[in-house]
Amino acid sequence: MRRHRFRAGLPAAVGLGLTLAACATAPAPSLPGAAVEAPATWRAGIPESGATVEAGWWSAFGDPRLTALVEQALATNADLAIAEARVREAGASAAGARAALTPSVDIGAGVQDQRRLTDLGIVTETLAAQPEVRIGYEVDLWGRLRNGDAAARAGLQASRHGRDAAALSVAAATARAYMTLLSLDAQLESVRDILENRSDALALMQRRVDAGYASQLDLARARAEHSNVAQRIPALELAVSRQENALRLLTGGLPGPVERSRLQDLRLPVIAPGLPSSLLARRPDIAQAESQLVAADAAFASARAALLPQVRLTAAAGGLFVERLDPISLWTLGSSVLAPLFDGGRREAQADAADARREQAAWAYRRAVLGAFSEAESALDALVRLGAQRARLSDQRDAAAEAAVRAGRLYDAGYVSHLDQFDAQRHSLEADLALIQVKEARLNAAIAVYQALGGGWTPDADQGSA
């Protein structure tokens, strides 16, 4: 497997400017405004040390179940099957364009049985057969067919890169869906633990009311706190079910349960982003945009060449068999020149449209590059800032948990009301849920970094030789 070598800046525009007197071609003007210069450093300040981004990056989270799900999605996802079919379609189109460069050979045969009346009134019947082989070849003086072949091959390359970009998107979407599912599991577990405490508190409050040590108002408040926690469970259970179905869809399966680990079992990998300039050679979507620009350049050159005369050579050979007579050898050789004289501007309009498509491809390339840098910067920045937020939330969660414990002791000793105890427990639950969500966000940020940096993508060797 060899690495993709990316040319700095935009590929040179290969437009054909015609001069009919010399029948020559000249490069069309490029689009300097569509070029992009890579930044020198990343704004997020991520250190260079760490694990490099390699294929199979999802295994860096240390969860074999996640690895199995991503690999299953890459093997069975319907969107990837569609992308693979598009590659085959582009391959067939490229083969057809390449075949236009070779001679065409046709074989034909005609049989004629004729019955006629001669001038003497005699009826005669004649059987004649004439097999023939025809050969045709267009002399590609101006490069119309060659550029058409180049455009088709670049289109095939673009479809391959598009398939790889789709595979990276599916892998990242599967990993994110898995992280979200684990986060929902952790939130549901936390809420169930709090609900158990609320149930014990409600039972205790009922006993205190029965014994005359508490009022009905206190009991109503305890029931309200219990219901407030209990109502979260069905919503979380629904979210878990929906997330399981979404994950099963990504992996090409019917709705159902998903085998999984726990959120705390995953590790957060340390990622080295490398230099920003290396991003241009590491993302399949950028390579796809580049190949599309190359295809648009070649298509424009082919459309301009169509304005020039076309030279075609033809040959035919065969024989004529009449009943039992000896065959008569027949052959023809010829050439033709077809020069456009007047077509109402159709060919010129096609060339102008090809030029516009080339400009669109150039700006689409710029958009892909700018989008790649934006995604990478945002993902790296999120990884840094969510780490800081997690540290603050961890301190808040510890403090809220301690406050809840102390409030419970003071309530048992009669120094604070049950409202103070419930309030402390509520803050502890919210801090716990927020910490779980930040853990999920950090894991998803790591996935976004892997995706933004190309996921360890390198084109196959056969793609480079296409």
TrEMBL record:
Cross-referenced Pfam families: OEP (PF02321)
Subcellular location: Cell membrane
UniProt entry keywords in alphabetical sequence: Lipoprotein, Membrane, Palmitate, Signal, Transmembrane, Transmembrane beta strand
InterPro entries the UniProt entry points to: MdtP/NodT-like, OMP_efflux
Gene Ontology CC annotations of this record: plasma membrane
GO molecular function annotation: efflux transmembrane transporter activity
SUPFAM superfamilies given in the database record: Outer membrane efflux proteins (OEP)
Range of residues in the leader sequence: 1-24
Membrane topology per record: Lipid-anchor
Entries under Gene3D superfamilies matching the protein: Outer membrane efflux proteins (OEP)
Similarity comment: Belongs to the outer membrane factor (OMF) (TC 1.B.17) family.
UniProt name for this protein: Outer membrane protein OprM
Organism listed in the record: Brevundimonas mediterranea
